[in-house]
């Protein structure tokens, strides 16, 4: 009897203790979690202030906070990759899901009739050169012009503390750089929440070219969005259709026809201040791009892959960036050893050096669709 009672007592004791230990453990873990959560919330608040984010409701703010936390994890993973020579961090897009990022910022559309040709060409390239399916390395072996340097060593960053890491392997010196060619190089624009990259890259390259001769008046992107008949406005557009409008009737100023980041109807009257003289297809190889770059910034289509969402510096060396995924229009403004220097249209807070990005050459379909201008 006594042994039964005492054993019952014993087990009760064990059970109670176990429960207590568990409870305490739980409390400890919970308070650790709470502290981490609080720190993340502080980062998020800081991000909101810096990027002037305002959410309609508390529920929306909490939803964005969850996305932000997910994104911090993705940034950490990217920064931990030793093959990667770019740095990733919290930027203006840190509260967007992948789907939102893609839907909002990527909008280059290839002309339907050109698409088939293009895919055939792409297929031929692959067969001829027996290359990695994911990467296009230049059709005519154009890399011969400049020696491609060995992979730069990477400083791996594992922290996601905010502000993000600012040091990384520097890009190689630029042998062509339109920011030097043109002392009045215009600042990078922001297409906002409208898929008008095709208009921004077209007008952007033209503005950079004009700035070389001292012209600094900003030209209208909205005019192209509204007046390029063959485009889908904020849903995407084609370069050549945009160039035709830039030639005839030509472009008015940003001041007279300001950007709305929305679909609109073409105004019946505006004062044309610049006309594009001509454009030339320079696509096909790195050597063609390099030959054209000293006299014109190049309007190109490329695959802006998911890494773009977090890029804040260094040379982007994407793992997977298939050449047949052209989805974005940008401007090549520099040649920097084994990378291109590219002008984007996501504002001056995105990317590096106020709106730019360095990308390893031979990646992301760069050069498959490229144009130079004559002002
Ligand atoms: C803008 O125009 C395109 C092409 O007509 C259309 O597909 C899209 O739905 C429009 N967007 C808005 C917000 O009206």
UniProtKB/TrEMBL annotation:
In this record, what's one Pfam family?
Inhibitor_I29
Q: Where does this protein have coiled-coil stretches?
A: none
Transmembrane as a keyword of this entry, yes or no, is no
MF terms (GO), sorted A to Z: cysteine-type peptidase activity
Is the keyword Disulfide bond in the record?
A: yes
One biological process term in Gene Ontology: proteolysis
Q: Where is the Peptidase C1A papain C-terminal domain?
A: 172-374
**What is this protein called in UniProt?**
Uncharacterized protein
Source organism of the structure = Bemisia tabaci
Q: What is the lineage of its organism?
A: Eukaryota, Metazoa, Ecdysozoa, Arthropoda, Hexapoda
């Amino acid at each position: 009897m006594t042994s039964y009672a005492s054993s019952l007592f014993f087990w009760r004791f064990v059970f109670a203790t176990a429960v207590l230990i568990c409870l305490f453990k739980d409390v400890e873990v919970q308070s650790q979690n709470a502290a981490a959560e609080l720190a993340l919330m502080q980062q998020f608040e800081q991000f909101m202030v810096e990027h002037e984010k305002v959410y309609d409701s508390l529920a929306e703010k909490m939803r964005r906070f969850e996305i932000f936390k997910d994104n911090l994890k993705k940034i950490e993973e990217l920064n931990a990759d030793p093959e990667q020579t770019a740095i990733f961090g919290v930027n203006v897009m840190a509260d967007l899901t992948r789907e939102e990022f893609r839907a909002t910022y990527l909008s280059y559309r290839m002309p339907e009739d050109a698409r088939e040709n293009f895919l055939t060409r792409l297929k031929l390239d692959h067969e001829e050169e027996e290359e990695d399916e994911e990467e296009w390395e230049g059709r005519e072996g154009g890399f011969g012009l400049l020696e491609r340097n060995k992979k730069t060593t990477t400083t791996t960053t594992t922290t996601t503390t905010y502000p993000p890491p600012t040091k990384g392997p520097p890009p190689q010196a630029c042998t062509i750089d339109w920011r030097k060619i043109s002392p009045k190089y215009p600042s990078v624009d922001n297409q906002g929440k409208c898929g008008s990259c095709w208009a921004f890259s077209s007008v952007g390259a033209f503005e950079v070219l004009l700035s070389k001769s001292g012209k600094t008046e900003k030209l209208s992107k909205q005019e192209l969005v509204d007046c390029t008949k063959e485009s889908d406005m904020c849903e995407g557009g084609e370069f050549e259709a945009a160039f035709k409008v830039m030639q005839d009737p030509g472009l008015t100023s940003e001041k007279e026809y300001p950007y709305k980041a929305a679909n609109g109807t073409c105004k019946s009257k505006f004062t044309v201040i610049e006309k594009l003289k001509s454009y030339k297809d320079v696509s096909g190889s790195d050597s063609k791009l390099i030959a054209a770059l000293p006299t014109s910034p190049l309007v190109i289509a490329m695959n802006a892959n998911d890494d773009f969402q977090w890029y804040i510096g260094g040379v982007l060396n994407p793992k997977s960036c298939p050449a047949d995924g052209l989805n974005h229009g940008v401007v090549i403004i520099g040649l920097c050893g084994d990378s291109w220097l590219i002008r984007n249209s996501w504002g001056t807070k995105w990317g590096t050096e106020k709106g730019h990005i360095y990308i390893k050459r031979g990646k992301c379909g760069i050069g498959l669709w490229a144009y130079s201008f004559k002002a």
